[in-house]
Amino acid sequence: MKENRIANENLTPIPQARFFRAYLQGAVPKAGLSANITQNMTLYSSSAAPPLGHGDDSKLRQHASCVLDVKGVPRHWELNWAVAGVLALQIASECGIEMSGFLADSNYVPISRPVIWGHYYDELPEEAIRFANAHTALLESLLLPERYSRVTNALRLYQGSLTLDNADLALLGFVGAIESLFSLAPQELAFRLSLLLAKFLGDERRTADNVQPSPLSVHRSF
Fold first, then answer.
1. Is the pTM of this model over 0.70?
2. With 80 as the cut, is the pLDDT of residue 214 above it?
3. What is the pLDDT of residue 5?
4. Angle CA(18)–CA(21)–CA(24) in degrees, nearest 5?
5. Under a CB-based contact definition with an 8 Å cutoff, are residues 186 and 193 in contact?
6. Which of 48, 23, 41 is nearest to 88 (CA)?
7. Average pLDDT, whole number, for the chain?
8. Beta bridge pairs of residue 107
9. Helix, strand or coil for residue 213?
10. Residue 9: helix, strand or coil by DSSP?
11. In this model, does residue 100 exceed pLDDT 80?
């Protein structure tokens, strides 16, 4: 059974960070209002966010469009929840929202992965907030699955490709995300890989035919 990453008051208390705040760029909630993404996560415009009482927070909020506060989850899982919340907003909106860094307890960690691709607006619509509210918990579980998942692979390719400045690599990532979601024939890709590897390793066609591994064995190696 999958581990429950949200603290349960009926169980032994799980260590949690004193505070965790992610600083976002690219968009603000509609009308600058706060929004509950999940019961553990709240999105604020930078001007409406409550102060943390930490010296760096005030300066960081000046350079952020909004912040995402995470609480009530086990220590070291806060970042995964924040990434899932940002991913949900990216999927459901046409906003170039991205995480520029996070503050956990007294430690600030910068993240330099700007979103490059897409047609973007400056305001997060209510539809994106509702989508994030409904799907962030599922996305969080998919980002660190217990076993290989096509959906997880597609999400990682999509989110990673948004930040690539090379257009060819970004296109490969987006196409790979689509293929991962809708291609149900892994042996087709495995066969192509095995054939190409066999031809690369073999000096002649006959040699290549002899060394060609089975599609299943190639697929299992990835």
1. yes
2. no
3. 47
4. 175
5. no
6. 41
7. 79
8. 104
9. coil
10. coil
11. yes
